[in-house]
Amino acid sequence: MGSSPKMQPLAITLGLALAAFMVGRNMVIQPAKSMVMRLKMEKQTEERKGQAIGRIADFERQINAGQSGLLPKTDASAFIEMLNRMAEDSGVSLTSVTPFPVEKMGSYARLPIQVEMRCSYHQVGRFLSKLESSSTFIKVEVLQIRQPPEVRTAESTEPEESKLSVVILLNGLSRAEAG
């Protein structure tokens, strides 16, 4: 099993090449692959963090936008003033506005107000549309529409746009006052 003298340098060269390959693989290529994998994982983590930060920013914008929908104070005067403007713009005649006690709900306060009015179907529709499109959070809790007795008679000569008796219980929302 002797090796020829010409084969010895070739065997040494092949052995050194194989040893260099193994050293390169274990000392350079494997650590580089590990580093690439680690960097890819870090990049994915950073992307997820960025997405989470983006979602948090969206939530903050929604919360801030929601804050603008609150009434400025727990005093019903600003709410009543706003309702009066909406009624006037809708051609509605308010016959009564009754604020009820403020109800605290955690860090918010609910301001219930009952409004009574005389108006036509179209006018109450315009009024409700203004409530709905308002930038302030307003919830209609109760809506009662009645045709007054004088309009219900068969001999009535009232026009089709006769005045109705309407009662609406509304709730506005504001930040609760500290105390």
TL;DR?
With 179 residues, this protein is of the alpha+beta class. The protein has two domains: 1-67; 77-175, Ribosomal protein S6/Translation elongation factor EF1B (Alpha-Beta Plaits), CATH 3.30.70.60.
Describe the structure.
The structure is a single chain. The chain is an alpha+beta fold and 179 residues long. It has 2 domains: 1-67; 77-175, Ribosomal protein S6/Translation elongation factor EF1B (Alpha-Beta Plaits, 2-Layer Sandwich). Helices cover 51% and strands 24% of the residues. It is built from 4 helices and 5 strands. The chain has helices at 7-67, 77-90, 121-133, 149-152, and strands at 93-99, 103-105, 108-119, 138-146, 164-175. Strands 1, 2, 3, 4 and 5 form a 5-stranded antiparallel β-sheet that branches. Strand 2 (103-105) and strand 3 form a beta hairpin. Helix 2 (77-90) packs across helix 3 (121-133). The longest helix is centred in the first third of the chain and has 61 residues, at 7-67. The model has no long low-confidence stretch (mean pLDDT 82).
